């Protein structure tokens, strides 16, 4: 007997055993506990329905727990999806279904609808979260092959902003619709496409701002003029926490999530109260969306700007307003600490509370834009000495120029007046008017007769 044969037979034996084991492993898969798929680093992988590509078994309830570190997000791509269709009578997914549960940073579960055979849904499911649970349930025997779902754990640096949609026939401002900040930037300005002239209609632009995981983002609205009435039909600007999970499948708990989003419609004059024009994220991501309707937009002119403009700033920490005097408890600020100040609700009545004191990057000091909380200009305050010096110098130079010009003009005027006087006296001596009045004197308008 030769060696190759025994090698062959033993490998075949192992192969068959392995197959059987696989078979057995799959068959014993009524999924008694969640299938844990955890990767710390960005990666991709695939989850299959039990027995795939053979029909999935009867009576299973499988939970796939896809999770990664908090800075990564999970995306799903459905490459194959074949479950029993919806019941003809009740139109429900009764025989088998899959539920996508998105778990957000606070551990809240956002439970999607049941999906089953023949359903129309997005084949690519992109979240801003790092944990997704897939729950697969089957109740009947079937010949359906189940599903194959690719998962992607994507690092924070490569998260894209949500897709922008642009349906205006005039595509002039399309490039300004949506975007994301450059890595490492500490502040920025975002304006609506076409600002300050107008804005396109029927668009949905999305911007993603992402800063260091230890930072939060402060947003201040500078301009807003979408319409003159507080009416969201023309357009809505929404500013949301970038960790917020938007439910594509259902809108049931939208109300519960309202606090993680601020919406602005109409005009800035409707948001006069201090604090209404600003927003602070709970995490290091900010999502901004500008959606307009089909109504004809406003047109800006020399006096009024149309659209919106906002400024965002990365803040390292918020010095706790309530811990006044307890400096030990305050987070250390190694960069610039805004001065804060008092926010008084009713003037003269002493209803005041300390304003938030932000800790911001030192590079934002004297950048020409106030980056502290609303009404706190302390980051632009200390630069006034150099500014005054520069602008004072410029003003002095301008003054000298003006004086020089005035003197020059004055001299020229006098010169020409003398010449004029001389020439006219020459003329008058040869051709004097009969009444003897100087020729250059204006005639007084006649008083209207009453
Ligand atoms: C999913 O996995 C994460 C991380 O491994 C864990 O913290 C979480 O409890 C799991 N969830 C479920 C429902 O098993
Ligand atoms: C707005 O866009 C939608 C596509 O989402 C399109 O069906 C609709 O006709 C557009 N409306 C107008 C008034 O342009
Ligand atoms: C908004 O823009 C319109 C169109 O230019 C203008 O008539 C209106 O006065 C502006 N509103 C404010 C409050 O600036």
TrEMBL record:
Kindly give the InterPro entries that the UniProt entry links to this protein.
CUB_dom (IPR000859), LDL_receptor-like_sf (IPR036055), LDrepeatLR_classA_rpt (IPR002172), Non-NMDA_GluR_Accessory (IPR053207), Sperma_CUB_dom_sf (IPR035914)
Q: Which residues form a coiled coil?
A: none
Region Disordered, as annotated, extends over 420-450
List the protein's name. Answer: CUB domain-containing protein
Matching SMART domains, A to Z? CUB, LDLa
First and last residue of the signal peptide: 1-27
Q: What are the CUB domain coordinates in residue numbering? A: 31-154, 177-315
Here the segments flagged for biased composition (Basic and acidic residues) are: 439-450
Q: What Pfam families does this protein map onto?
A: CUB
TM stretches of this protein:
388-409
What keywords tag this UniProt record? Disulfide bond, Membrane, Signal, Transmembrane, Transmembrane helix
Tree of life domain = Eukaryota
Q: Which GO terms describe its cellular component?
A: plasma membrane
């Amino acid at each position: 007997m030769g060696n190759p044969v025994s090698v062959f037979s033993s490998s075949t034996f192992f192969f068959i055993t392995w197959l059987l084991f696989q078979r057995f492993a799959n068959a014993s898969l009524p999924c008694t506990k969640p299938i844990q798929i955890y990767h710390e680093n960005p990666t991709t992988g695939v989850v299959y329905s039990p027995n795939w590509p053979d029909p999935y078994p009867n009576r299973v309830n499988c939970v796939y727990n896809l999770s990664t570190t908090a800075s990564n997000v999970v995306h799903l791509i459905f490459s194959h999806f074949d479950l029993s269709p919806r019941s003809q009578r009740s139109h429900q997914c009764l025989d088998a279904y899959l539920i996508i549960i998105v778990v957000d940073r606070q551990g809240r579960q956002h439970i999607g609808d049941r999906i089953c055979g023949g359903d129309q849904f997005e084949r690519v499911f992109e979240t801003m979260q790092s944990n997704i649970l897939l729950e697969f349930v089957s109740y009947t025997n079937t010949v359906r092959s189940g599903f194959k779902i690719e998962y992607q754990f994507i690092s924070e640096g490569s998260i894209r902003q949500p897709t922008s949609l642009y349906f205006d026939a005039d595509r002039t401002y399309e490039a300004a619709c949506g975007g994301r900040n450059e890595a490492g930037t500490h502040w920025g300005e975002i304006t609506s496409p076409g600002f300050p002239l107008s804005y396109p209609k029927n668009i949905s632009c999305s911007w993603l701002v992402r800063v260091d995981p230890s930072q939060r983002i402060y947003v201040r609205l500078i301009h807003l003029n979408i319409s003159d009435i507080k009416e969201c039909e023309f357009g809505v600007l929404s500013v949301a926490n970038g960790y917020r999970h938007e439910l594509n499948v259902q809108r049931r708990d939208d109300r519960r999530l309202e606090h993680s989003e601020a919406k602005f419609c109409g005009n800035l004059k409707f948001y006069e109260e201090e604090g209404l024009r600003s927003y602070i994220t709970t995490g290091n991501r900010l999502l901004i969306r500008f959606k307009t309707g089909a109504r004809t937009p406003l047109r800006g002119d020399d006096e009024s700007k149309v659209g919106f403009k906002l400024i965002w700033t990365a803040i390292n920490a918020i010095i706790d307003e309530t811990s006044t005097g307890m400096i030990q408890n305050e987070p250390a600020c190694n960069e610039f600490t805004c001065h804060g100040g008092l926010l008084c609700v009713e003037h003269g009545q002493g209803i005041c509370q300390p304003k938030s004191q932000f800790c911001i990057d030192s590079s934002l000091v004297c950048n020409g834009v106030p980056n502290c909380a609303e009404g706190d200009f302390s980051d632009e305050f200390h630069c006034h000495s150099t500014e005054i010096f520069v602008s004072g110098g410029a003003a002095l130079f301008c003054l000298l120029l003006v004086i020089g010009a005035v003197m020059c003009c004055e001299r020229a005027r006098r010169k020409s007046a003398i010449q004029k006087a001389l020439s006219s006296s020459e003329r008058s001596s040869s051709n004097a008017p009969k009444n003897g009045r100087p020729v250059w004197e204006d005639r007084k308008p006649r008083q209207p007769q009453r």
